[in-house]
Please model this.
Amino acid sequence: MSDPLATYLHDHLAGSVHAISLLEFIRDEHDGERLGRFASSLLREIQADRETLQDLADRVGVGSSEVKELTAWITEKFSRLKLRRGAQNGVGTFEALEFLELGIHGKWALWRALGTVAETDTRLRGLDYEHLAARAEAQRSIVEERRLETARQVLHPARSARN
Model:
């Protein structure tokens, strides 16, 4: 693929597949718990962001990359094996939250970059990139809160000594 914009959009669409699958995993693993409700709520927002990105890719004329999305889906399924192995001590959930935070930061960077390019590329106009970037930052912040809460539970030396 020679269009850098297409590559960039496809990469972020594939990343969203992974993020959605991880949130579904956290939601299901922590069903009825505060973390499960958090994942369910964030999942709806991430799915909405993915739809926005997919609509943008369609409008730009690059669609989606089934190969990249399938690769992301398969990678996420393999990562679930690791997450499940870490389920007893919570490290899997901690690492999933860390991955999500990094991915959301990437989404923030995506919206910022596209907003800059939209100034000169009419294909990208029509979205409020500042709003999308602010929403990504709010998501990143709330995931960071949950990640640190989980770190206190999972990585605390006294807790590790008991396990």
